[in-house]
Design a protein that fits this description.
The structure is a single chain. The chain is an alpha+beta fold. The protein has three helices and seven strands; from the N terminus they run ββββαββαβα. Strands 1, 2, 3, 4, 5, 6 and 7 form a seven-stranded antiparallel sheet that branches. The protein is elongated. It starts with a strand and ends with a helix.
């Protein structure tokens, strides 16, 4: 992520988006009147529209906290006021976001970049080998009785 690492496992990033005819392509939740997380009135990305501006840019993620839009701090704003700021932000929109960093104990796959990001290989191979060994054992026992 191109940004600065803040204390406590968070990173901040500035993301510039160009509004499309359908908008910026994401929904928000939160605000002082509609807290998404208890005791936290921040604004968060709740959904990213496929093929929208944010989706095509690829940097904004569901769960990101939006700290500011076009330099306007979103701290302690009502949900509807935040929505209005987004609606009136113009064609070129700058978002300052904060994202919790994921602890990395090894390679982490991410959808679409050629890595599986699914189950570890051992989670597939071990049960498969156990099944194969059981089948061989049953086959050998069956052949001994003939």
């Amino acid at each position: 992520m191109n940004g600065s690492v803040a204390g406590g496992g968070y990173a901040e990033e500035i993301i510039s988006l160009t509004r499309r005819p359908s908008g910026l392509g994401f929904n928000i939740v939160g605000g002082t009147d509609q807290q998404y997380i208890a005791n936290d009135s921040s604004i968060y990305v709740s959904w990213i529209k496929k093929n929208g501006a944010a989706y095509l840019d690829g940097r904004l993620q569901e769960g990101d906290k939006i700290l500011a839009i076009n330099g306007k701090d979103l701290k302690d704003v009502r949900h509807r006021d935040a929505v209005e700021l987004f609606r009136n932000a113009g064609c070129h929109v700058s978002l300052k976001i904060q994202r919790r960093l994921q602890p990395q104990n090894g390679p982490v796959g991410r959808g679409g970049d050629g890595e599986s990001g699914g189950l570890p290989l051992a989670a597939i191979l071990v049960p498969g080998l156990a099944l194969a060994a059981t089948a061989v054992w049953i086959l050998l026992r069956y052949r001994q009785r003939m």
